[in-house]
Amino acid sequence: MELRHLRYFVAVAEEGSITRAAERLGIQQPPLGQQLKALEAELGVQLFDRAPKRIALNAAGRVFLEEARAILSRAQEAVDHVRRFNIGESGTLSVGFTSSASLHALTPRVLGSFRQSFPLVQIAVEESETYELVLALQNNRIDVAFSHVATDDFKNLTSRSLGQEGMIVAIPAGHPLARSGDGPLETRALAGEKIVVYRRPDGPGIFDGILKRLDQAEIPITISDQVSRMIAAINLVSAGRGLTIVPASMGILHRASVHYRPLTGDVIPPLPLYIAFRTNERLALVKRFIEITSEIAQECMGR
Length: 303
Known about the structure:
The chain is an alpha/beta fold. Helix content is 44%, strand content 23%. It is built from 11 helices and 12 strands. The protein has helices at 3-15, 18-25, 29-43, 59-86, 99-102, 106-117, 130-138, 176-179, 206-216, 230-238, 284-302; strands spanning 48-51, 54-57, 91-97, 121-127, 144-147, 157-165, 167-172, 194-198, 222-227, 244-247, 258-262, 271-278. It has a 5-stranded mixed β-sheet, with helices on both faces. β1 and β2 (54-57) form a beta hairpin. The two termini are 61 Å apart. The relative contact order is 0.14. The mean pLDDT is 89.
């Protein structure tokens, strides 16, 4: 049984006439009549009561008409869906974020704009560490990732810069550097301080670059704790374990127990934000998301 057989059947059922149905379908009457008989033979059920110059559905035909309409409707939906998917207007998009990138002012704006432009697209969000997002991209488990670390050095991945944000120092509320004001802090003021470090041994991270720059500037520090996530580092700052250096977007956390001061940028420069994706990406849906993200980022930078 083919879809065209169902279309023929529905046309005859709705018109109540092979002649009118043939005109509607743009085919000749004899082939249409033959197709109807072939359909009934395949089903083993007579669907019409026939009389000279008259054809009408019987009880079985009325039941089959409902089923045929449902099948044709679903088939058209499938065609429409795959066409929308092919041009990037439907489907599911998996987006990964690092903890800091998820709090960046750009990301909710991008997601909101994309949802408004493409309401048929389902967006699945995943938050993880940079290296885990890299693996997820390489293994096709996510489509794009927002991170503060470029992925161009990883196989089959590339990244596009979206802008940058300044770095801030998270300080326990009772610390002398917290009591001395809210203004920008020179990085050299961190000399001799206890620092909570966030990094993973199996992949790239923000703090590796921070430690390198502190070492190059000959600013000695003491690592009090090492954790795998930035939020965990701020939690330890809140508990008084030491200071840490984070992107400015993280400054909304633990405001009652953590004091934030911007760094002057003399040693540690502003942090880039990237969108990472597979170099050979072909899906129109993913390409549309990347382009919209880049456009919004340019608008934000132009302000």
